[in-house]
Amino acid sequence: MAGLIFTPDMRGQFAAIARVRWQLFVNSMRTIRGRMEVVARGVTFLAFGMGGIVGSIAIGFTAWYCVSSGRVAWLPLLLWPVFLFWQLVPVMASAFTENVDSSNLLRFPLTFPSYFLIRIAYGSLDPPTLMGSLWLLGMAIGIGWASPLLFVPAAGVLLLFAIFNILLARMLFTWVERWLAQRRAREILGVLFLFMVIAFQFIGPLIRHFGNRSHQPALSRVVVQALPIERLTPPGLAGETIAHSLRGDYAFALGSFALLCAYMLVVLWLLNARLRAQYLGENLSEALARTAAPLAKQKIRLGWNIPGVPGAISAVVEKEIHYLSRSGPILFTLVMPLVVLLIFRFTPGKSDSSAGVLGHSADLAFPVGAAYAVLILTNLVFNSFGADAGGIQFYFVSPVRFREILMGKNLTHSLVLALEIVLVCAGASLMYRPPPWDILLATVSGVCFALVVNLTVGNLLSVYAPKKIDLSALGRQRASQVTALASLGIQAAVLGLCALALLVARAYHHIWLAALIFLALAAIATVFYSLVLNRIDATALRRREVMIAELCRA
User: Fold this and answer.
1) 274, 536, 525, 219: which is closest to 405 by C-alpha?
2) Cβ atoms of residues 356 and 366 within 8 Å
3) Which one, of 123, 204, 135, 138, lies nearest residue 168 by Cα?
4) pLDDT tens-digit map of 477-488
5) For residues 156 and 176, what is the distance between their CA atoms, to the nearest angstrom?
């Protein structure tokens, strides 16, 4: 299909790319930030590796039980979680992955087979692929432990299933990039993705609801009717191939295996079509040639004039609001606190309360939603210059202090969080009941404390560890690994202090005492915030070359 023959020229090209990647890694170790990035990335891969090992043991033991007890029909049920994890996690949890834009290699004289294999190889180095491969390896070992004669065919089927998942993930990403290159397609896919993710969150509550005995007959009929369709899907075919091999039905096993190969060939053909279009120089830009407007129609549009706010800070606020309002992924994350409260509302509790999980603790709805709103804002606060990209150069040549620029960004983030808190309060009041005045006061003061701490640390990380991001593209609004690891530590410390303050207030039977503690902590944090702002101009000037090089990176 792609003419994939590993020729000596291709080996040379792969070796050259490997040397470049290795030299980039060695050069990054010369800076403190580079070494911290390696440590943070190592921690991330260690966490995914531990998850892969634990999951591999669990799925291997389950596969051994299914084969040894004769319940081989359950094997497809083990492959479905692997399949869904492999395809959904790279999108859902893209903050933990590092996707290299290998399309930049097209500027060099690469052959198409080399480019094709490089795209596949780059996509095979992400943590979900590592975890999925470990899980399938554990499943193969479990099957071989229960039936040694079945190990070789099971390993072959699972290897084919792993290759299918790798190709499918690459195919989906390449075609999604193609569709997102057009504005109308971006809007449609953004809405569909929003509803898909929100609907995905309701799977647990629906299972709990239909798991009641009164709904079991209807659920059983649905499962029975869906089984023939499930057996024609890739996970079902892989499981059926292994099951038929164990029963000795080699004709059916060969048919299922052939159909799985047909699925893989279709995916390979679609991936080949997409990558070949990129290789031939496809340009998906929607930019139109600018035409000079008549002098009579040219108008000067004045910027925002926020009362009590200097002009430079107002201009930064206006720019940031425009950035955020045009970003589908960011707008999606901003509505998630309300979605979380809605999920809690319809998730049955242990006592089957009609008010859901928080039925007997409805006063906690507002604090939970507010805490989640603070957490999702850290991606913006801890990488304030990420969306500016190459525009960071204009900050250094403009007659504006970095103190004012960061104050404008901090003001924008504070306004967004304030709007979030108002929406969460309204949602909690409608879904449950209005929060009592002491909990409302304690929550708002705690949010203020957390906001000041996040802004202080975020200003430092935005200068010391910036990373270019694309707010309009799905899966490209990530901060650096150092920032992600630091944010986890900061949030753990803030939550620990908040929990300690609440315990002290509860010991005295007055929740409003927590508000006084939070205000005192916020005052201390404000002092550090002012110190950071006073020194941020000198820090940014000293690190201007590093910031420009990182944010202007292609």
Assistant:
1) 536
2) no
3) 123
4) 455 667 777 778
5) 30
